Amino acid sequence: MSKGYSLHIGVNKLDKTHYFDVPELKAAVADAKFWKAFAEQNGYKAKKLHNDEATASAVLTALADYAKLLQAGDILLLTYAGHGSQIGNDKVTGLDNERNDQTWCLYDRELLDDELFEAFREFGDGTRILIVSDSCHSGTIARVAKSPKPSASTSPPAWKTRRKCAASDPGNCR
Predict the structure, then answer these.
(1) Residue-wise DSSP of 10-38
(2) Phi and psi angles of residue 91, each rounded to the nearest 5 degrees, phi first
(3) Which of these, 113, 126, 117, lies nearest to 147 by C-alpha position?
(4) Tell me: the pLDDT tens digits for 1-51?
(5) Pairing verdict, β 128-134 and 75-81
(6) Other Cβ atoms closer than 10 A to 3
(7) φ and ψ at residue 29, rounded to 5 degrees
């Protein structure tokens, strides 16, 4: 019997030490509350992350926990309401071969689409993820994996995300 799980992220306020001149939103948390209630009414086991709870670490940890929990046939409903942005580059990089990475503006920092993609790759075969992203620049927040998750017997992929490589060696990003 398949099971439904859900995570609802709503960010009205951003940490002003990390973001400057970004206006506070009025309805993002209300939207996340709506989606959580909707999910619970439909039998999903629902969790929420609102405002200062919605850090990059909290979101990635929750996704990692769900990746371990969900079995084939299970579904994760992932909703995000808040600011979105993009980080540009003068050359094509990242997992989606674009000049820009789309981001969710979480409380403490922007979460790149490449980071979400890496988290989604950890989900087992036959699990499903439905994403509702209510933000600007949500173009490649969700996409289908182009290659299977590497197994322990294979070498890790040759690519690096911009998040990981930008600090160490930006010229080596692929």
Answers:
(1) E-S---TTT-SSPPPPSSHHHHHHHHHHH
(2) -140, 165
(3) 117
(4) 899 999 999 999 999 998 888 899 999 999 999 999 999 999 999 999 999
(5) parallel
(6) 14
(7) -65, -40
Q: In angstroms, rounded to a whole number, what is the distance separating the alpha carbons of residues 85 and 41?
A: 32
Residue 1 confidence (pLDDT): 82
The SS3 of residue 150 is coil
Token code pair at residue 45: 């086991």
List 69's β-bridge partners, or say none: none
Fold category of 4-147 in CATH: Rossmann fold (3.40.50)
Is residue 85 classed as helix, strand or coil in its secondary structure? strand
> Residue 125: enclosing H or E segment and its boundaries?
none
Q: Crossing angle of helices 56-69/113-120, nearest 10°?
A: 20
Q: What distance in Å separates the CA atoms of residue 160 and residue 131, rounded to the nearest whole number?
A: 24
88/93 Cα distance (integer angstroms): 10
Residue 161 amino acid letter: T
Give pLDDT tens digits for 104-154: 999 999 998 889 989 999 999 999 999 998 876 455 555 554 445 555 554
